[in-house]
Amino acid sequence: MRRALVREGGLWREVDVVQRTGSTNSDLVARSAEGRLREGVVLVAEEQTAARGRLDRQWVAPARSGLFFSVLLRPGDGVPMERWGWLPLLTGVAVATGLARAGGVDTALKWPNDVLVTVGGEERKAGGILAEAAGDGGVVVGVGVNVSLRADELPVPTAGSLALAGAVSTDRDPLLRAVLRGLEDWYGRWRAAGGDAGACGLQEAYAAGCATLGRVVRAELPGDRALVGEAVAVDGDGRLILATEAGVQEPVGAGDIVHLRAG
Questions:
Q1: 193 Cβ partners below 8 Å, 6+ apart?
Q2: Predicted TM-score (pTM) of this structure
Q3: What is the pLDDT of residues 39-83, one digit of tens each?
Q4: Which of 29, 92, 234, 249 sees the fewest Cβ atoms within 10 Å?
Q5: Max CA-CA distance within the chain?
Q6: What is a GO molecular function of this protein (predicted)?
Q7: Which of the pair, 48 or 189, is modelled with greater confidence?
Q8: 94 near 182, Cβ under 8 Å?
Q9: What was the pLDDT predicted at 57?
Q10: 182-to-67, 127, 176 alpha-carbon distances in Å
């Protein structure tokens, strides 16, 4: 895997694989705090015992049943911080396209950071993305994807996996390579455009794969607030735009999204 990913002039400079850890995100954030790590470090775990999603929710899966990895990025050189909110969405595009290409499985994205598959005609969450500041201009982006989990191994009944969605391949090595190559490609385009998601095609690519757009959704916002409306767009800052019954278009920059029905 290192030979396939680490190359002169490429993004990925170091690929470490560990058998078991609490959280690859926590480990990489801690390593970054100990001393300045170069951009492009990848940490992969066969098993995570304390993986976290958004709002510190736990992500639990059996050993060797999924992709569990984190990467260290340093977009500060040339990309304004206000555009860093695109990093989870950018990663989502790379994950969805990589899984489709290498696994032969249809995927979709739920704003802002979930990867969906279809199991028995129902949308199921098969993966999640978590971006965290790592200090000193770094961002650690973690990805967890259920690959080979059987129905009796799912953490909750509403979860899914690539295997349950009918993937033609559940070999994690080519899946991970496809995702990381896609991430390198999109990150390079985005950085070259100064973080302008519209100019580099990222905004259009995300919208094309986003299952949230065109749906009536409930946004559960900080401060115990909620907003219901049709998700009509993702704007240039990566925010979800909701058209409410009051005739107002409201941007949502952070919050949990519940899909209520198709648009």
A1: 199, 200
A2: 0.93
A3: 999 999 999 886 655 545 566 678 899 999 999 999 987 899 999
A4: 249
A5: 56
A6: ligase activity
A7: 189
A8: yes
A9: 59
A10: 15, 16, 10
